[in-house]
Specification:
By secondary structure, this protein is mainly α. The chain folds into two domains: 52 residues, no CATH class; 163 residues, no CATH class. It has nine helices and no strands.
Length: 217
């Protein structure tokens, strides 16, 4: 069998490169260069696919909200490292839900107190329950991309209660003891409450979903 026939029969397999080298049809350095080019092309394709999936939640039964898709595209266009984009998206979603909950709480208190005639403390308690449920459901769908549960709702209620007590204590300490302006104390307490609420939610309320996403990204 001639060298050319042997090369044709083995074409398309890894063996053809070795045979070509042995029979003198192809030089060793040329084979190495070809393999390096193939590896580089495969790595480039994998990198592009990873960049395209950056900030995209894992496929689950919960559909992606259109607003979240817009945020994903905006954050994907930022020069941030890919490892930080999913964290930023989660923070933005969590903060957006909190802001919507604050507006809902104000509106509920007004309706119950001024229009329905409830005592303002009772209105506060009812609005708190409503906002906790609202925030938990939206965070489950938007922020952590998972379905809710009664246990998760109970844990989130505890986290929200702790955050509220923390903010109240900070306002008192910073205003009465540190001598800060009460609005400055309130601003600091809101920031501290957000950090505490997000951290506890990440570690205790939605632990299964976050652990899964970390392992996948």
């Amino acid at each position: 069998m001639t060298n050319s026939c042997l090369s044709v029969r083995l074409k398309g397999t890894k063996t053809v490169q070795l045979v070509n080298i042995l029979v003198g049809n192809e030089r060793l350095d040329e084979v190495i260069v070809k393999e390096m080019r193939n590896v580089t092309a495969q790595e480039s394709a994998a990198t592009e696919q990873l960049a395209a999936r950056t900030c995209e939640p894992e496929a689950e039964s919960v559909p992606v909200d259109p607003l979240v898709r817009v945020l994903q595209r905006v954050i994907a266009a930022t020069p941030l490292p890919s490892s930080l984009r999913s964290t930023l998206l989660r923070l933005v979603c969590f903060a957006s839900v909190g802001a919507a909950g604050a507006l809902l709480k104000l509106a509920t208190m007004y309706l119950l107190t001024d229009l329905a005639g409830f005592h303002y403390l009772l209105s506060y308690v009812l609005s708190f329950v409503l906002v906790v449920t609202h925030n938990y459901l939206l965070n489950s769908q938007w922020t952590f991309r998972t379905s809710g549960s009664a246990q998760g709702l109970g844990r989130y209620a505890l986290v929200s209660s702790f955050s509220a007590l923390l903010k109240m204590a900070l306002v008192f300490v910073l205003t009465e003891l540190a001598g800060l302006w009460y609005l400055a104390s309130t601003a600091i307490s809101i920031l501290a409450g957000f950090v505490a609420s997000y951290g506890l939610s990440l570690r205790w309320v939605w632990t299964t979903r976050v652990g899964t996403s970390r392992g996948a990204r």
